[in-house]
Amino acid sequence: MKLKALIIEDNEQNMYMLSFLLEKNNYEVFQAFNGLDGIKVAKECSPDVILLDIQLPEMDGYQIAREFRQRNDFNHIPIIAVTSHAMVGDREKAMASGANGYIEKPIDPDNFIQKMESYFTAELLQRRN
Ligand code: MN
User: Fold this and answer.
1) Which of 81, 126, 127, 129 is the most exposed, having the fewest neighbouring CB atoms within 10 Å of its CB?
2) Helix (H) or strand (E) holding 20
3) Ligand 1 midpoint to CA 51 (Å)
C-alpha cells in the first residue's frame, strides 16, 4: 500500500526534490511550507512519516517536533529531520526534540529514500510493500 509522507519544508526547490523522490518511490505526498500548516495538514492526512526541515519561518523544526510529540495522535509517527543546519550538536538537538532520524542536506537523490526508510520500524516497512 502507499504510505503517506508529509513534507514540512519552506524551500521550493527542496520541496520539489523531496516530493519527486517520494512520489517516484510510491509514496503519497502531502506538503506544508511552515509548522502551523504542517500540524493542520497532519491532522487532515494522518501521515505515516513526517519529513521535517529545521530552518523554517516562525516555528522552527525543533518546536514542531516537540508539538507533534505532545499530541497523542501523532506521538508514534516517525519524524525525520532533513536539514542543512549541520553543526555539532544538531543531530542531538533534533533527536532530543523528538525526531527519530536525521538526514543532512544537500539531499542525495540516489540514497535519500534508503536513508529515510532506515529509520522506519519493521512494521512500517512491511506496510510499505
Ligand atoms: Mn528551510
Assistant:
1) 129
2) helix 12-24
3) 12
Q: For residues 34 and 24, give the distance between their C-alpha atoms in angstroms, rounded to a whole number.
A: 24
Q: Where are the beta strands (DSSP E) in the chain?
A: 4-8, 28-32, 49-53, 79-83, 101-104
User: Under DSSP, is residue 4 helix (H, G, I), strand (E, B) or coil?
Assistant: strand
Distance (angstroms) between ligand 1 centre and the Cα of 8 equals: 9
| 60 C-alpha to ligand 1 centroid (Å) | 9
The pTM of this model reads 0.95
Distance 9 CA to ligand 1 centre (A): 6
CA of 76 to the centre of ligand 1 (A): 24
Domain ranges across the chain: 3-128
Q: What is the DSSP letter of 107?
A: P
The structural architecture, per CATH, of the domain 3-128 is 3-Layer(aba) Sandwich (3.40)
The answer to whether the CB of 79 falls within 8 A of the CB of 56 is no
Cα of 123 vs centre of ligand 1, distance in Å, is: 30
